[in-house]
Amino acid sequence: MDALVSLCKRRGFIYPSSEIYGGLNGFFDYGPLGAELKRNIRNAWWQDMVHRRDDIVGLESSIIMHPKVWEASGHVAGFTDPLVDCKVSKQRYRADQLFFAAVTVEPENSASDSSEKQIIGYVSALESERTTEELQEKAETLKRKKAVRGKLEPVVARDFTEAKPEEYALIPSPATGEPGSLTPPRAFNMMFETNVGAMRDASSIAYLRPETAQGMFVDFKNVIDTTRVKLPFGIAQIGKSFRNEITPRNFIFRSREFEQMEMEYFIHPDADWLACHEAWLKWCQDWLKSIGLPESSLSLYEHPKEKLAFYSRRTVDIMFNYPFGVQELWGIAARSDYDLQQHQKFSGVPQVYFDEAAKARIVPHVIEPAVGVDRILLAVLCAAYAEDEAPDEKGKLEKRTVLRLHPRLAPCKVAVLPLLKNKEALAGRARALHAKLQRRYAVAYDDGGNIGKRYRRQDEAGTPWCVTIDFDTIEKPGDTFTLRERDSMKQERIDEKALFALLDEKLN
Ligand code: GAP
Asked: Which 3 state secondary structure label does DSSP give 461?
């Protein structure tokens, strides 16, 4: 992860936001290469989700919506995370990410009767790959420190939401290592509030949207009244969402301003919603593989029934094996008719679809695949990042860093490199090719330093192909260039027509 974060900064993929002022936790800027990569992810999704399907239309709704939208959706009352404060260090934790265990010892010489076991204290640790191991180590240290003899029981990790009220004061704060400073968990609403208009009072409160999904529900009637969509059909949207996360972390994985790509697929209430849910689950996995994520890094997590979000009948997450652990990438939820029913109730405007066959008005149900652009971008970078060896100018192998990005996502598709900078015949031909390519693709022109260095620069940026304009190009018949492929580093001669055909095939 450190190597990737450093590459992102060094090569202009991702910067901390407002860095000259010390940064702002949970906010990021995408630099020149990052902006291209992100745009390519959005475009690939839009192309496959909207343009290449007959049953899905696009939407761009406003970020700030009527505050009643969020009352109807349940976000004002229920979009909360459990927050725990440490009164001493002033640190704040998400209770479900703060783990603790009772340290239990079976005293020496006792029969193995459980009533003899005694709790000698508590240990705590934050959620990580090693949470249980860390708790076990801390338990051993506590036993040594208290000089208790006897057999230490293996720790059983629980999160702070599972603590009994009498345990709150006994659990040490992860910041100080001492008990007594953690508050009971309380619900913290994650929506960012603002005021609309000149008055700053309760009547002008509005929210930055915490999801794009509500836009599709609120415009459901507009879409069916102004287009020719017929059930089943979907409305898709890409846009920014905002959540005042208690603990933004893992680089861009969990941030406070992020971008979502969501699609609400409306189906008849009598339709087989489970089959539709399964079909979308498969579509999403296939799509992730199509943009280059290896199948081996993907897995599924079925939300247990008792932990489902208030609107969900079934939710399955597609998980990605990030360097910091297996984490949620894409959530596919069956939302029933919850949202349309709520908006019907709160607005008083019927949210119905006329079923021609049954000659009846119905409220459709919804299957929702919801994913974060930033999370896909991070997964794509993690999967693409590699270190291998490449020959230097003298043929000696040296370490190279390469981003093996799918060509469709690569920020720059081709780099045009004149062999020598000051040779006008080479530079002129290179500039002409560059100008022609530039009309259709994001391309780079690089004439600085030796060819090996220039290849290395493009490898780090994930550019799939480099074309070098050399003496054979201008002296021999055929007007061919050296085409060098990023992953195999293989070189071959190619002319302009074949180059355009290759790009057309690989990128479209
Ligand atoms: N409309 C449903 C919804 O928003 P969610 O599981 O809360 O569901 C959907 O969010 C997706 O948005 C997640 O799977 C994740 O990819 C992305 N996401 C959510 N919170 C995020 C955050 N704080 N930072 C980055 N991405 C986030």
From this structure: helix
Instruction: Find the angle CA(400)-CA(401)-CA(403) to the nearest 5 degrees.
Output: 135
**Cis-peptide into 232, omega within 30 deg:** yes
φ, ψ of residue 58 in degrees (nearest 5): -100, 165
- Residues in CB range of 109: below 8 A, 6 or more apart: none
- Assigned token pair, 480: 């061919």
Tens digits of residue pLDDT in 226-271: 999 999 999 999 999 999 999 898 999 999 999 999 999 999 999 9
The radius of gyration of the chain from alpha carbons, rounded to an integer in Å, stands at 28
Query: What pLDDT does residue 287 have?
Result: 98
| Segment holding 492, helix H or strand E | strand 491-494
Whether this prediction's pTM lies above 0.85 is answered by: yes
Alpha carbon distance 289, 305 (integer Å): 28
User: What pLDDT, on the 0 to 100 scale, is given for residue 210?
Assistant: 98
Task: Write the burial class of residue 328 (CB in 10 Å: 0-12 exposed, 13-18 middle, 19+ buried).
Answer: middle
Closest to 11 (Cα-Cα) out of 458, 441, 493: 458
Residue 171 tokens, joined: 């659990």
List alpha helices for 103-219, DSSP H.
131-145, 213-218
Structural domains for the chain: 2-79+192-381 (3.30.930.10), 81-188 (no CATH), 396-507 (3.40.50.800)
Please report the pLDDT score of residue 113 as a whole number. Answer: 53
How far, CA to CA in Å, does 259 sit from each of 238, 241, 287, 305, 371?
Answer: 7, 6, 18, 28, 9
The rounded Å distance from CA 372 to ligand 1 centre is 6
Q: Which residues' Cβ are closer than 6 Å to ligand 1? A: 211, 213, 243, 245, 254-255, 258, 260, 262, 328-331, 370-372, 374-375
Residue (of 47, 9, 48, 50) closest to 30 by Cα position: 9
Which helix or strand (DSSP H or E) is residue 380 part of?
helix 373-384
Q: Which protein residue's CA is at the shortest distance from atom 6 of ligand 1?
A: 331
- Give the 3-state secondary structure of residue 205: strand
List, for the chain, all residue ranges whose pLDDT scores fall below the cut of 70. 109-115
Question: What tens digit of pLDDT does each residue of 159-208 get?
Answer: 999 999 999 999 999 999 999 999 999 999 999 999 999 988 888 999 99
The span from the CA of 390 to the CA of 204, in Å, is 61
Residue type, 80: T
Counting DSSP H helices and E strands in the chain, the numbers are 14, 27
The preferred substitution site among 17, 211, 324, 376 for testing ligand 1, maximizing ligand atoms within 8 Å of CB, is 211
- SS3 of 287-318: the string is HHHHCCCCHHHEEEEECCHHHCCCCCCEEEEE
